[in-house]
Design brief:
By secondary structure, the chain is of the alpha/beta class. About 45% of the residues lie in helices and about 15% in strands. The chain is built from 8 helices and 6 strands. Strands 3-4-2-1-5-6 form a 6-stranded parallel β-sheet, with helices on both faces. Helix 4 (about 105-120) links the parallel strand 3 (about 90-95) and strand 4. Helix 3 runs parallel beside helix 4 (about 105-120). The two termini are about 20 Å apart. The protein binds 3-methylbut-3-enyl trihydrogen diphosphate (IPE) (2 copies) and magnesium ion. One 3-methylbut-3-enyl trihydrogen diphosphate binds near residues 13, 55, 56, 57 and 60. Magnesium ion (MG) binds near residues 13 and 183.
Length: about 240
């Protein structure tokens, strides 16, 4: 079972290019991308993955044309409303990570409702990163520790990486051990910077709307073949497993 990653993090990229390749508008690709969210979630559920974190909208994505941003917001609301019952039925706990305060009211309400409904589930922890940025996450955690220092509750000398870790989002889950990015780009784009310190990276040229369960399996198989050394030597690991 240790061959199955505990926590998969995915940058779902390539919706626009996938649509363009078929002479369709970008929004078509985003719509089809939602279907892949469903198949990926169910694939993870079947394989016994504990947590899945999907990058849906970055803090940088506000720079896109206004029509695309508002289409994405609308799609987010309709997908949440459409999928939440099914998620709940499957025992999935949904959390949205990111600065949701900037979203339209209707979306904020749909988020709260979905999180409340699924809060006691534990079969799969599904996190959707929306208006999320890794640097924002670390900055927010730092602010929290600074507040403790200012209030006299924390000695600056006692600030450790473990203490900072506790303030970072998703610290209650196993750290992501497999990162997947579709769409051919090989970059992190300000995703889970802190959490991915020791994550295995997997890149595929498939566009997100093409990422089916078979593709998920290919990524997991690649993960299963890797030797994770965490700083040690391969010989040390071999000796320990004897
Ligand atoms: C990812 O697909 C979805 C979001 C960022 C919302 P893109 O929209 O980035 O698709 P490409 O990269 O332009 O093809
Ligand atoms: C990253 O995708 C964020 C999401 C998938 C939501 P982008 O397509 O926006 O990333 P860059 O800007 O090309 O790196
Ligand atoms: Mg992109």
């Amino acid at each position: 079972m240790d061959r199955i990653p505990k926590h998969i993090a995915i940058v779902m990229d390539g919706n626009g290019r996938w649509a363009k390749r078929q002479n369709r508008p970008r929004f078509w690709g985003h719509k089809r991308g939602v279907e892949r969210v469903r198949s990926t979630v169910e694939g993870c559920l079947d394989l016994g993955v504990e947590a899945l974190t999907l990058f849906a909208f970055s803090t940088e994505n506000w720079k896109r044309p206004e029509e695309e941003v508002s289409f994405l917001m609308g799609l987010f609301v309709s997908s949440l409303n459409k999928e939440v019952k099914r998620l709940h039925k499957n025992g999935i706990r949904l959390r949205i990570i990111g600065e949701t305060g900037r979203f339209p009211q209707q979306l904020q309400e749909a988020i709260i409702e979905a999180e409340m409904l699924t809060q006691h589930n534990s079969k799969l922890f599904l996190n959707i990163a929306a208006n999320y940025g890794g640097r924002w996450d670390i900055t927010k955690a730092t602010q929290q520790l600074c507040r403790h220092v200012a209030e006299g509750k924390l000695d600056p000398e006692k600030v450790t990486s473990e203490l900072l870790h506790q303030q970072i989002l998703l610290s209650d889950l196993p750290e992501p051990d497999l990162f997947i990015r579709t769409g051919g780009e090989q970059r992190i784009s300000n995703f889970l910077l802190w959490q991915m310190a020791y994550c295995e990276l997997f890149f595929t040229d498939l566009y997100w709307p093409e990422f089916d369960r078979e593709a998920l399996k290919v990524a997991i198989d690649s993960f299963a073949e890797r030797q994770r050394r965490f700083g040690r030597t391969g010989d040390q690991l071999k000796a320990e497993s004897k």
